[in-house]
Design brief:
- The radius of gyration is 26 Å and the shape is globular.
- Strand 7 and strand 8 form a beta hairpin.
- 48% of the residues lie in helices and 14% in strands.
- The chain folds into 2 domains: 129 residues, Aspartate Aminotransferase, domain 1, CATH 3.90.1150; 234 residues, Aspartate Aminotransferase, domain 2.
- A 7-stranded mixed beta sheet has the order 3-11-10-9-6-4-5, sandwiched between helices.
- One of its GO terms (cellular component) is mitochondrion.
- It holds the Pfam family Aminotran_1_2.
- It comes from Sphaeramia orbicularis (orbiculate cardinalfish).
């Protein structure tokens, strides 16, 4: 045997031994890391359960509407916690528009907008939304969360300042974190504190006041006239998130800025297609055309997300067209909202907010909110308890949402169920 062959014959078995050992060590290391991570996750989940803030997901077996079917519950259930403010999620014309778009344009684009993902129906919806809000232009996103994530990074640089209400939606907070501007947070709806922050920001190139039009957990409405006054005094722009206002606040349902008479003083509006406007998915920004053009060039959620599916666009377009044609649905909301609020207050419950269809039944304790929501389902009413981290600790509540599709009988049944459940848990006498 040659020296070379002898050497090879010796190395081969060594390699055969080393490879399995190396693999075993790596597998053990990976298994230990995975087991450690699993233990950390399980401990975190246990702490959520122990705190009474676990968020289960009930399974709906019907279309969305004021009456739904819920897995495990017999018969139709009254639904009082959807964002389906105008009852358009299952409106026959909206549904048919989605079917027609599916047949004509297909299920999806398999592309982002700037490559090969823009159809004429996308541009048509953007034009309709700009018309609805009386703004120059509009850009569509996969969600309003994406719209908020994509705006501030593009608009605001290190020489600018963002002034944000402390209770703004999580998507606004996350979007602001992505930009390099100076960030100033003012106390909730506190115009005096906002003015103080505006004075601090006077050296900045641009100043942008950022607020929800309606704050979704409490149903309170931002003081837009005062905000706009301060913006004009201190040279700032105004941005509002209108997810819980578009379609039903204001005489024509245009939103908070119309309700409070400041449509021509608010510069940028972000909102959603996933609530009052059909309830499927999607969000958008409306505002000055140069801003919208710049967002198309640089907004990352827009550039790197697939186009909205044609059926979603078809449904939303029909919803907007219905609202452009008539404000009758939007105007029906006020009486129904006040019927619920007045009846609950007379029964002894504390209802946060003012005249908004979001009617938070304040309970304080997270576990109580969860138990009461479960008992309400036994009475045939679907509501959900909200607790930390969705709302601050100690401010748990059941958030009731009134829809234009609810009848007076539906509302009265819901109130009666609350009275029975509230007495059982000692919330009211």
């Amino acid at each position: 045997m040659s020296l070379r062959k002898a050497a090879v014959s010796l190395v081969k078995p060594v390699r055969g031994v080393l490879r399995p050992l190396s693999s075993v060590v790596l597998n053990r290391s990976y298994s230990a890391a995975a087991a450690g991570a699993r233990a950390v996750l399980e401990n975190e989940l246990d702490s959520i359960r122990a705190a009474g803030t676990w968020k289960g997901e009930r399974i709906i077996t019907s279309k969305q509407g004021p009456h739904i079917n819920v897995d495990g519950s017999g018969g139709a259930i009254l639904n009082f916690c959807a964002n389906n403010y105008l009852g358009l999620s299952s409106h026959p014309e909206v549904v048919q528009a989605g079917i027609d778009a599916l047949k004509q344009y297909g299920a999806g684009l398999s592309s982002v907008r700037f490559i090969c993902g823009t159809q004429d129906l996308h541009k048509h919806l953007e034009q309709k939304l700009a018309e609805f809000h009386e703004r120059e232009d509009c850009i569509l996103y996969a969600s309003c969360f994406d719209a908020n994530a994509g705006l501030f990074e593009v608009l605001m640089g290190p020489d600018d300042a963002v002034l944000s209400d402390e209770l703004n939606h999580a998507s606004i907070i996350d979007g602001i974190r992505l930009c390099r501007a100076k960030r100033l947070r003012y106390k909730h709806m506190d115009l005096n504190d906002l003015e103080t922050k505006l004075k601090e920001a006077q050296s900045s190139r641009m100043r942008l006041i950022v607020t929800d039009g309606v704050f979704s957990m409490d149903g309170d409405v931002a003081p837009l006239p005062g905000i706009c006054d301060l913006a004009e005094q201190y040279g700032a722009m105004v941005f509002i998130d209108e997810c819980h206002a578009t379609g039903f606040l204001g005489p024509r349902g245009r939103g908070t800025d119309e309700l409070l008479g400041v449509m021509d003083r608010v510069h940028i509006v972000n909102s959603t297609l996933g609530k009052a406007l059909g309830g499927a998915a999607g969000g958008y920004t409306v505002g000055p055309k140069p801003l919208i053009d710049l967002l198309r060039q640089r907004s990352r959620p827009y550039l790197f997300s697939n186009s909205l599916p044609p059926p979603v666009v078809g449904c939303a377009t029909k919803a907007v067209e219905l609202l452009l044609a008539s404000s009758e649905i939007a105007q029906s909301m006020t009486a129904k909202t006040m019927r619920f609020r007045n009846s609950m207050t007379q029964a002894g419950f504390t209802i946060a907010g003012t005249a908004h269809p979001i009617c938070p039944v304040m309970l304080g304790d997270a576990r109580l909110a969860s138990l009461m929501a479960d008992d309400m389902l036994k009475h045939g009413v679907y509501v959900i308890g909200f607790s930390y981290p969705v709302v601050p600790k100690g401010k748990a509540r059941i958030r009731v949402q009134i829809s234009a599709a609810h009848t007076d009988e539906d509302i009265d049944r819901c109130v009666n169920a609350f009275i029975q459940t509230g007495r059982k848990h000692g919330v009211i006498s």
